[in-house]
């Protein structure tokens, strides 16, 4: 089949005498080339036309890959044209990631139109995380639909810094102290639940539920009901499942993304209602803060009051609507749920396998409580649990929940002297290699909490990238360390943890964050916290602590 000659693009303005090579550079020369192309195009069949289009598309894809790749490590050619390693990305494997990190400090892949550069040395990771001029956080396309485009996490530069400033007050020491009683209450309820189970079971779903309940109670206090918590805990995994790297551009009913968006909207609606209740408590009933929402609304109230007394004073925090509050609280849940569940799985699996660590934690727990296991948690008490805290830190180093943090390049970014990441590329600083750097952490693949006793500056400053660094560093960092230190101490004091290891226990499953591949099979048994304590010590010390309280 031929194309109709009358549909000429070039028209009839082509001089007949333009034929010599130098004229290629002239207007007439260009016209000749166009004319020839047009003639060629007209002489093609539909099949030839489509084959030519495919060849041009594939060549463009390969050439762009080569240009963007430059000198860095990565497949010589895009082995799977256009799609690249898309199929592997649907089922990510830790070993494949590790091989990529080991292939060079900068390596690349290209999936569809996305060119991805992975930085796997600690210095490059830090440099990227601390370069807001060149990069901003990047989320998979569907995350924007799920979190809503208006969400604060998509702000950049000054707008982001200003918004964050109004949230920082929710995670300072004074605020953290407020959340402890509600956290402890739910830690106790779940301890009871875990120790009442008959026989071993998978703890991956148990920990996901525990962490969801702890987070939601910290965020919404008593404004949220048990049923609402259960609903969110049961369905949250659908949000994680929707966050695949590449999705269909529109949300089709009854697909993973549709369910993800539905659950997110329902959850935000619950948070909106909680925010309304919290405003009544704080603004109308002059109630006391018991959760993050209350604290946020108290800060708004204080700022308004200060401003009305002194209109010249800068308003540090503005009035946020219930919808805005619900979106922010949802980002907290979104940022915390998978990472915290991951930490819980590894932490409790590791300690259950290490009686020496358990003994030291128990000893410390009774010591800081003067042998009275009923002393309630407080920030001051948690701050005294240095060894327990080291165990949490080491677990985060040994099995960091977040392996990589994707960023997108805003303008060409000279990442090294020899490589500039192109605008629009995805640039991924990796956290795992920095935390397993043998120059800083000797014997990095062994779990050694004692290494933190004499921690050097490098162990914290240059390599401690568990929570990222720079303007987007994790907002919940101190909250996580406080909650897990308190929880680990309490649970080890009051329960014996039995892990049922399988050949997959030490293998890493990637599901947004990382988990033991066998989903962690455990059983918990109640224990008397004072069972190993000398009877004389029990009596004298408990009475001392009671006297002190009186
Ligand atoms: C074990 C638990 C957690 C880990 C390992 C973790 C890790 C991280 C990492 C690596 C980042 C990216 C930092 C960067 O780009 O430099 C991040 C960001 C963030 N995290 Fe966490 N996180 C955890 C728990 C939490 C919790 C409990 C909350 C809230 C209560 C939270 C709130 C956030 C927020 C809001 C951001 C985005 C900050 C911004 O863009 O300004 N995270 N987290």
TrEMBL record:
Highest taxon listed in the record's lineage: Eukaryota
Keyword Iron on entry: yes
Task: Report the family membership.
Answer: Belongs to the cytochrome P450 family.
Tell whether Iron is among the UniProt keywords: yes
Keywords, sorted A to Z: Heme, Iron, Metal-binding, Monooxygenase, Oxidoreductase
Q: Name a GO molecular-function annotation.
A: C-22 sterol desaturase (NADPH) activity
Q: Which Pfam families match?
A: p450
The record ties this protein, via SUPFAM superfamilies, to: Cytochrome P450
* Essential cofactor(s): heme
Sorted alphabetically, the Gene Ontology BP terms of this entry are: ergosterol biosynthetic process
Its Enzyme Commission number(s) read: 1.14.19.41
Which residues of this UniProt protein bind heme?
474
> What protein name does the entry list?
C-22 sterol desaturase ERG5
Q: Which InterPro entries match?
A: Cyt_P450 (IPR001128), Cyt_P450_CS (IPR017972), Cyt_P450_E_grp-IV (IPR002403), Cyt_P450_sf (IPR036396)
Which pathway, per its entry?
Steroid metabolism; ergosterol biosynthesis; ergosterol from zymosterol: step 4/5
Q: Top EC class per UniProt?
A: oxidoreductase
């Amino acid at each position: 089949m031929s194309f109709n000659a009358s549909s000429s693009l070039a028209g009839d303005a082509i001089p007949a005498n333009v034929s010599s090579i130098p004229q290629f550079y002239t207007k007439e020369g260009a016209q000749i080339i166009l004319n020839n192309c047009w003639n060629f195009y007209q002489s093609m069949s539909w099949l030839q036309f489509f084959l030519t289009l495919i060849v041009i598309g594939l060549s463009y894809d390969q050439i762009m890959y080569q240009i963007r790749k430059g000198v860095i490590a990565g497949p010589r050619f895009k082995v799977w044209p256009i799609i690249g390693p898309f199929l592997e990305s649907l089922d990510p494997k830790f070993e494949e990631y590790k091989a990529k990190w080991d292939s060079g400090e900068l390596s690349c892949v290209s999936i569809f139109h996305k060119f991805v550069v992975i930085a796997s040395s600690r210095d490059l990771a830090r440099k990227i995380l601390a370069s807001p001029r060149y990069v901003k956080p990047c989320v998979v396309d569907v995350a924007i639909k799920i979190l809503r485009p208006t969400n604060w996490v998509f702000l950049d530069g000054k707008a982001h810094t200003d918004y964050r400033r109004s949230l920082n007050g929710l995670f300072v020491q004074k605020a953290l102290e407020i959340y402890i009683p509600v956290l402890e209450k739910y830690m106790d309820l779940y301890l009871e639940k875990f120790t009442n189970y008959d026989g071993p079971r998978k703890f991956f779903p148990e920990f996901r539920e525990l962490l969801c309940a702890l987070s939601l109670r910290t965020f919404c206090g008593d404004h949220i009901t048990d049923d609402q918590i259960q609903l969110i805990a049961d369905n949250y995994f659908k949000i994680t499942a929707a966050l695949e790297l590449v999705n269909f551009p529109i949300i089709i009913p009854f697909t993973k993304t549709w369910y993800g968006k539905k659950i997110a909207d329902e959850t935000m609606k619950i948070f909106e209602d909680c925010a309304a209740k919290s405003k009544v408590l704080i603004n109308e009933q002059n109630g006391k803060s018991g959760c993050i929402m209350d604290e946020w609304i108290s800060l708004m109230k204080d700022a308004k009051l200060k401003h009305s007394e002194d209109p010249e004073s800068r308003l540090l925090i503005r009035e946020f609507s219930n919808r805005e509050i619900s979106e922010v609280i949802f980002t907290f849940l979104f940022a915390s749920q998978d990472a915290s569940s991951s930490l819980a799985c590894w932490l409790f699996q590791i300690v259950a396998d290490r009686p020496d660590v358990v003994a030291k934690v128990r000893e410390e727990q009774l010591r800081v409580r003067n042998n009275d296991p009923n002393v309630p948690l407080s920030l001051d008490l948690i701050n005294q649990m240095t060894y327990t805290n080291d165990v949490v830190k080491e677990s985060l180093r040994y099995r960091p929940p977040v392996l990589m943090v994707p960023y997108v390049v805003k303008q060409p970014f000279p990442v090294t002297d020899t490589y500039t990441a192109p605008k629009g590329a995805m640039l991924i600083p990796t956290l795992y290699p920095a935390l397993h750097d043998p120059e800083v952490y000797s014997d990095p693949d062994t779990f050694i909490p004692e290494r933190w006793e004499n921690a050097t500056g490098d162990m914290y400053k240059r390599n401690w990238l568990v929570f990222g660094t720079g303007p987007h560093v994790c907002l919940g960092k101190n909250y996580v360390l406080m909650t897990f230190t308190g929880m680990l101490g309490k649970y080890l004091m009051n329960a014996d943890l039995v892990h049922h290891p399988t050949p997959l226990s030490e293998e890493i499953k990637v599901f947004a964050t990382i988990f033991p591949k066998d989903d962690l099979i455990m059983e918990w048994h109640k224990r008397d916290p004072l069972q190993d304590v000398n009877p004389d010590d029990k009596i004298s010390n408990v009475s001392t602590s009671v006297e002190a309280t009186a």
